Amino acid sequence: MTAADEPNRADLGKDPARVSGMFDQVAAAYDRTNTLLSLGNDRLWRIAMTRAVAPQPGERVLDLAAGTGASSVALARSGAEVVAADFSPGMIAEGARRHGGIPNLSFVEADAMALPFDDSSFDAVTISFGLRNVAEPKVALAELLRVTKPGGRLVICEFSQPQNPVFAALYRFYNDRVLPTVAGWVSSNADAYDYLNESIKAWPAQRALAAWVREAGWTDVAYRDLTFGIVALHRAVKA
């Protein structure tokens, strides 16, 4: 095994190079692993995100932290022009390999804290399960605001904190005991899913993230829980 092949594990310092390298290593099996670990709920969350974005033909939509483009493909089915952006070259390459033939879908390597797009470029912007991997998420929220047209909309789909104490305890048990075992079976880099667990525990609850969105300058901020609060879907509008 060469140094490049050794498992790359990010930590809560969220060094961009380490996080990007970690996702490069899991790109090929990423979607399959997510479906297994989420017990198939990732597909339901993707449907909820797509409905919240409500892309229309002729619109331009940014799907940030798009990974291999599963969420981007769902958005592109509307006829909107979708830009799938991610800071992992491995993810972008895998997405382009799988979905490069879709005419209204393009793949771009991009840093969420310094987006390579002009001001007011998109009718809608969305980020699914990626904001908590950004070293400075508040900077990313401000960047998303910058590239959105006035009146444009933001949708964030992200892991959150279940509010029911019984369900929260079951969720912690699953993340602490079951998830690492399953990840060890199916992932090429099981350590990456240890980081996943840590990042979920450290991530703020729904109200705190909603406050961050408001602080970044977004208006009409609202959220709703999915799957008993394992995930929250946040929505906002650029004034």
TrEMBL record:
Gene3D superfamilies membership: Vaccinia Virus protein VP39 (3.40.50.150)
InterPro entries referenced in this protein's UniProt entry, alphabetically: SAM-dependent_MTases_sf, UbiE/COQ5_MeTrFase, UbiE/COQ5_MeTrFase_CS
Pathway assigned to this chain's UniProt record: Quinol/quinone metabolism; menaquinone biosynthesis; menaquinol from 1,4-dihydroxy-2-naphthoate: step 2/2
GO molecular-function term, one example from the UniProt record: demethylmenaquinone methyltransferase activity
E.C. number: 2.1.1.163
Alphabetized Pfam families for the sequence: Ubie_methyltran
Keywords: Menaquinone biosynthesis, Methyltransferase, S-adenosyl-L-methionine, Transferase, Ubiquinone
Reactions catalysed according to its record: a 2-demethylmenaquinol + S-adenosyl-L-methionine = a menaquinol + S-adenosyl-L-homocysteine + H(+)
GO terms (BP aspect): menaquinone biosynthetic process; methylation
Residues noted as binding S-adenosyl-L-methionine in the record, renumbered to the chain: T68, D86, D111, A112, S128
Stated family: Belongs to the class I-like SAM-binding methyltransferase superfamily. MenG/UbiE family.
Task of the protein: Methyltransferase required for the conversion of demethylmenaquinol (DMKH2) to menaquinol (MKH2).
Protein name: Demethylmenaquinone methyltransferase
Source organism per UniProt: Microbacterium ginsengisoli
